[in-house]
Amino acid sequence: MNFLAPAALALSALAIPIIIFYMLKLRRREVTVSSTLLWQLVLRDRQANAPWQRLRRNLLLLLQLLILAALILALARPALSVPAIASGSSVIVLDASASMNATDVAPSRFEAARRAAHSTIEALPAEAPVTVIVAGQQPQVIASAETDRGAIKRALDEAQPTNGAANWTAALALAAGALSRQTDQPTTIIISDGGLPQDLPPLPGEVRYVPIGQSSDNLSLTALSLRPTKNGAELFASVTNHSAVDRSVILSVYRGETLLSSQLLDLKAGAAQQVILNDLPREPAIYQARLSRPDQSDQPVDVLTLDDTAFAVNNPAGARRVLLVSPGNVFLEQLLAAIPDLQAFRVVPQKDGTLQMPTDEFDLYVFDGLLPDDLPFQPTLLINPPQNSVLRVNGVFSDTANARVLDSPVTRNVNWSNVHVREAKYIDPPQWAKTLVTSNGGPLVLIGDTGVRRIGAITFDLHDSDLPLQVTFPILLVNLIDYLAPGRSFNAPAGVSPGASVIIRPDLSVDTVAIASPSNQIYTVRSGGGEVVFKDTQELGAYGVTLISGDQQAIDYFAVNLFDPAESDLHPEAAIRIGQSQITSAQSDETGWQEWWSWLAALALLILLIEWWVYHGRKRL
Q1: Is the model's pLDDT at 9 over the cut of 90?
Q2: Phi/psi of residue 444, each to 5°?
């Protein structure tokens, strides 16, 4: 035991005046009583009240001396010399990835890492600044060059692990920034169960590694997906045994709440096994796969439960079918063939100029300079349109200068400054139409809804312009197609990782987008036809997306799963690589001080409360 502030022990002299106060004569209040028989002890005490007499045993004096002793010892800062990872300014990087939820270390790896961080900070000098970074999907600095140990403790206690992989590149970039502001030789302390990327950049100063974890006992669902087939849908699931021993597990697959399949899988150590279910209903549904113990007990199948359940959404939405009616336009043909989620067909006029239209219906019709006798009722894009019953063509104009692009979701990212048009057909916009691009002579691009169908129009022949040679051409055409024949509200990949962004592209008629998380937390976004980027996907499970347009609603789903072998492989690593250096478990080659003054201060407060209770108890007598 050592004292970091031994000069405070000189305050022990304060005990002398306290003792003197008890040796001086006491002044008592005069109180008239009916009899002195009950007050003999008080009468005998009068002798002790004479000044400078020998003190009798007094509990209050003892308690007050104990309070003084505890306070003086606290001010002297007693401390024990303990091994320390660092002795100066430090940056602590705390792993908060999904694997830190494992329970092989009670109560979890993250709680063990939190305790290790507390111990590390307690062993540092009180004046040493500490920066704490929580390495999750979006790393956060929860304490920056902080010397207030209480503030650091509160920040650490509020930190929580995530359900996905940690962004170590961003976390160490934050650490490097914090280290660059230190004047002394700083130390970076990484508290993790390993699994860091191998290409991380070096860090200035010393780097120490505190490994967390004991067991690699884990089974995981590493894949769950659906694909359409001729007879419905096919489900594919994959289970991996990351343990060092052979394991058996039951894989159960549900469609909604209905159990479809339950199979016992025997997995060798480090092996994977796939399961395929065929001829599933083609209707939209949410599928769930679960791992459970063969003994049917309620105990977890392994030490990490996050990857024991997975979800998949069967939401069949075929590609949009587009029919191009054109005598030949390589620009349109190549563009339509390149757009994802679009299946393009083509009709050319007969030798006599007539059109033989197919009887099948299409999601969108594109007429390039040609029109049938009767327009279809489906969405239609007219390019260089002849006279028709929907848009009235009144001649041709060549003054296409000073083109102006009106603000609209359809014209987002459209730049017309380098586009030149030789001539265009003059169309008097109907009341239902909205002009998107206009010039001195008249409109160049229009859209609108007739009440029967949506219409888009480009009023000039593409060959009479350099629009197909400009970057804005595919942008404009894709925007027009998305307006006329909207595809799915979003194209979520089969496996959305926790924390990944999901892009939702609602139709222009959609007013509000409401996203419901697996725990039924509702996120509401005003759309107005604009793109919605949803980032709150940290929770695992199925999310519902509701598109609200007036009193009409449409719902779609996507799933977030932990399909990350690096997180599911719980084998704790004894070393990590930072830059070109192999960092092994931190060695205790330095010493620090574990101080006890806070406990002594708490003891002084406790004795003070006892002294107050004793004093008032005597006063009542």
Answers
A1: no
A2: -110, -30
Report if pTM > 0.90: no
Q: Is the separation of the CB atoms in 465 and 420 below 8 Å?
A: yes
Confidence (pLDDT) at 511: 81
Cβ-in-10-Å burial (0-12, 13-18, 19+) of 46 comes to exposed
Strands of 316-460, DSSP E: 320-325, 342-347, 364-368, 380-383, 393-397, 404-405, 424-427, 433-438, 443-449, 454-458
- Identify the helix (H) or strand (E) that includes residue 22: helix 15-23
Are the CB atoms for 331 and 351 separated by under 8 Å?
A: no
Over residues 217-228, the mean pLDDT reads: 92
Three-state helix/strand/coil letters over 240-288:
EECCCCCEEEEEEEEECCEEEEEEEEEECCCCEEEEEEEEECCCCEEEE
Distance CA 267, CA 249 (A): 8
The answer to whether the beta carbons of residues 531 and 504 sit under 8 Å apart is yes
For 556-597, the pLDDT digits (tens) are 889 999 999 999 999 988 899 998 888 887 555 555 556 667
pLDDT of residue 8: 77
Q: Which residue has the tokens 């997180």?
A: 567
What count of residues does the chain have?
Answer: 621
Cα–Cα distance for residue pair 209/192, rounded to 1 Å:
8
Residue 153 clears pLDDT 70, i.e. is over it: yes
pLDDT of residue 469: 93
| Contact present, 557 and 502 (Cβ < 8 Å) | no
Q: For residue 83, is the peptide bond before it cis, meaning its omega torsion is within 30 degrees of 0?
A: no
Residue bearing the bigger pLDDT, 290 or 81: 290
- Rounded CA gap, 270 and 346, in Å? 52
What tens digit of pLDDT does each residue of 395-411 get? 999 999 999 999 888 88
Collapse the DSSP code of 216 into the 3-class scheme (helix H, G, I; strand E, B; otherwise coil) and give the result: coil
| Domains of the chain, start order | 2-80+598-620 (no CATH), 86-214+572-587 (3.40.50.410), 219-316 (2.60.40.10), 323-484 (3.40.50.880), 502-560 (2.60.40)
**pLDDT higher than 80, residue 389:** yes
Task: Give CA separation, 116 vs 6, 35, 156, 334, in Å.
Answer: 29, 67, 11, 60
Residue among 393, 377, 239 at smallest CA distance from 301: 239
Instruction: Give the span between the Cα atoms of 511 and 424, in whole angstroms.
Output: 35
Rounded-to-integer distance, Cα 415 and Cα 284, Å: 40
Question: 93 forms bridges with which residues in the sheet?
Answer: 133, 190
pLDDT at 392 over 70: yes
% residues pLDDT > 90 (the chain): 49
